[in-house]
Structure to design on (214 residues):
């Protein structure tokens, strides 16, 4: 539905509060989450995440956000084109990130280790590099260890792996890096009717990348 005035006020208020907390953290790069949808029946509190990074301005250069002026927070994240099977990467301000009429006007963030921050910061500023681990074919329930589709959290995780390992030159190699370091996805338990209904009525839900046993 079209945004109402109260939606804009609440979204911008959350953005301002988040910016203040991020500034106080002293971090340069964080994982930032929002509660866009109510997924509580699946045991999921946060429905979407991306990387927020501090852009300190400075001269513009090809493929980089920036410019003269005070430091600001940018968010790089992957979004599904509503109701379709495709997605794209976006670079937004905090205000835009919270103007999608979320289910709850709450945010959460995790400041990454200094090593991770130093590897991710130049990558996130580079329009070409953030696309290295991106697959536009989207499924909300994409299997974590397959490459046919990709949902938003997968792009973030695989990009993090690619930033840390020069050998993770594609999604498969990035997933191997995550497995070697003990990453394990949570399991969503969906009844047969929910699975069938999702597959039949939603272009952004696919199950053909999952092993049959799962």
């Amino acid at each position: 539905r079209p945004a109402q005035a109260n939606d804009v006020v609440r979204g911008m208020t959350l953005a301002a509060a988040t910016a203040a907390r991020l500034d106080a953290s002293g971090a340069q790069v964080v994982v930032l989450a929002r509660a866009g949808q109510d997924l509580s029946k699946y045991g999921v509190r946060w429905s979407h995440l991306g990387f927020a990074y501090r852009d300190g301005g400075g001269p513009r250069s090809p493929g980089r956000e920036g410019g003269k002026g005070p430091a600001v927070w940018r968010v790089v994240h992957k979004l599904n084109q509503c109701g379709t099977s495709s997605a794209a990467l976006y670079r937004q301000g905090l205000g835009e990130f919270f103007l999608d009429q979320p289910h709850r006007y709450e945010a959460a963030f995790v400041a990454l280790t200094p090593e991770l921050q130093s590897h991710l910061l130049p990558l996130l500023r580079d329009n070409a590099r953030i696309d290295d681990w991106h697959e536009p074919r989207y499924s909300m329930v994409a299997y974590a260890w397959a490459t046919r589709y990709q949902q938003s959290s997968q792009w973030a995780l695989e990009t993090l792996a690619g930033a840390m390992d020069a050998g993770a030159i594609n999604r498969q190699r990035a997933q191997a890096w995550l497995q070697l370091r003990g990453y394990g996805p949570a399991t969503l338990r969906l009844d047969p009717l929910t699975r069938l209904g999702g597959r039949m009525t939603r272009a952004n839900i696919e199950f053909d990348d999952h092993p049959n046993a799962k």
The chain has a mean pLDDT of 90. The two ends are 36 Å apart (CA to CA).
